[in-house]
Please model this.
Amino acid sequence: MSDSTATTPAKRPEPLLRAEGITAGYGGVPVIQDITLSVGPGEIVAVIGPNGAGKSTLLKSLVGILRVTSGRIVLGDQDVTNRRPEELARRGVGYVPQVQDIFEPLTVLENLEMGGYLLAAHTIRERVPEVVEVFPALKPMLKRRADKLSGGERKMLAIARVLMLDPKVLILDEPTANLAPQLADRLLREQVSGLGKLGKAVLLVEQRARAALEIAAYTSVLVSGSIRMEGRPGELLDRQDFEELFLGAATSLSSASGSEANKV
Model:
């Protein structure tokens, strides 16, 4: 008799952050429509899809940068729809944008201190070594100017800066953008995957779909502003119509694929 539990997927955790049927866009024109997704503690959820699918628009609506015109966003048991980014940060939502993610003229240490802007001064001093412990490669660079960092070091700093507030939810927009393929894969496998192991709820938008599938517990495929498919990565890869959802699937699913050219 076969062991049925061996093939039974683990139950997803209770959501920390969930979007329920949200629609958002620019100038009254919706870019994403009726999106429902969730992420729980210790879970990495990836949102993938072709260029222009609305992935960045989705993240901006979740963190209060872009107004949601219908549906709602719930953090824990509280409705936080259209709350300001600063208020969401106070409530435990951390957001790392694809660009303008660090303060280049400042040192690594100063960037971390800026990341703790909502904390008391003595708490910032205590928090810095705790964050550096998560990214030990930053320790010898604390006095280095951020504009002197490599692409991978810069992205580590961007994530570490957001970690200063010890968020419960981390929302990452294209963390591997403009990184070489090998460095990009390492960032996902080691750094982003490690955030899930810390118990963070991680929502990840990633153009390197194949690499994202390798670390995600659950994945949503966004096409033309709507979720067209979702499930565990293994389940998606087994579907014959999976790659057909991508424009130029061979490129989009390659771990070497680049960042979105015309980001929505």
Q: What stands out?
A: Residues 1-6, 247-252, 254-264 have pLDDT under 50 and may be disordered.
